[in-house]
Amino acid sequence: MSAYSRRKEHEEVTCVIHVTVSKNKYIVCVGWDRRINVFTDTTDSIHHEQHALPHWVDDERRGHTEDILAVTANSSTNHLATSSYDGEIIIWSLVSGHIFCRLKAPPPDPKKPFDPMEGDAAVNTLVFLSARGATRRAATLVACGPAGYIHFWNIYKGGKVMSYFTPNSEGSNLIAVNGNNTVLASGDTAGNVKLYNISEYCTEEHSPMTGTERSPLHSSPSSGPTPPLSSVSSLCRVLVSLSSCYRAVMIVVSDSGPARVTI
User: Fold this and answer.
1) Is the dihedral of CA 130, 207, 200, 184 positive or negative?
2) In the chain, is it the N or the C terminus that has fewer CB atoms within a 10 Å radius of its CB?
3) Buried b vs exposed e over 39-78: b needs ≥16 C-beta within 10 Å?
């Protein structure tokens, strides 16, 4: 067992992932210190406590200026993506540590109140659609935020939003995808979970209609019976949603349908 220590203490960690670059394995964590902390995942070290590798130069000079909330990696392209409280998404090269591009979506609905100081600009979750490979014609990054909207990003040529929608009036604060990136799950603070078929969504230069809710394959609140999910196949994943009464709700989705367990 190893302990991993960052340079700054008492700064909250918001997200931790495990990445592989070539044959090397790393643990990446982000949080309130606004830096990307990379640790070598090795069993060769004789030290019980491991310290982070030196910060990337671009991270120190041109990195996030607000708290980092999410991090995700695409092993097929060696890209790392981070997002912060102010809504900025930065795409990094995992090989060089250089910034690949910066993304920032405008407020999606000008008719609704939008206050960055209240967290409306925050991007809470990021997911790479790694199964789509290195294609430059499709959206390969999904972001939850700002304002609870789900954005599909093409990160090439400076980056652009190919489409966006909101699951409901309250928005979403958690997203996840299955292994082959054909189903997207969204969850909100009210405990609602919705599943969407994204197998052919944003796969070409032409973007689908934005701003409107897509029809979910399945929608389930955090309480009550869960109907069968016969339209989704080859999906097996555990989704965790926090309900309004602070209970963890696990939804295990498989070929035979979802099963709900409240902790």
Assistant:
1) positive
2) N
3) bbbeeeeeeeebebeebbebbeeebbebbbbbbbbbeebb
Contact 196, 142 (CB under 8 A): no
| pLDDT, tens digit, 9 for 90 and up, residues 53-106 | 999 999 999 999 999 999 999 988 999 999 999 999 999 999 999 999 999 998
What's the pLDDT tens digit per position in 171-230? Answer: 778 899 998 999 999 988 777 888 899 988 998 755 565 544 555 655 555 433 322 232
Phi, psi (degrees; rounded to nearest 5) at 94: -70, -20
Between CA 246 and CA 263 the distance in angstroms is 10
CB 191 within 8 A of CB 242: yes
Give pTM, 2 decimals: 0.79
Helix (H) / strand (E) containing 60 = helix 57-62
Torsion of CA 96, 101, 105, 106, to 10 degrees: 130
Query: Taking the CB of residue 199, how many other CB atoms lie within 10 A of it?
Result: 12
- Name the nearest CA neighbour of 69 among 130, 143, 139, 128: 143
Q: Which two tokens stand for residue 234?
A: 């080859």
Per residue in 122-141, pLDDT (tens digit) is 999 999 999 998 889 999 99
Name the nearest CA neighbour of 121 among 172, 160, 87. 87
**Residue 27 to residue 131: CA distance in whole angstroms:** 21
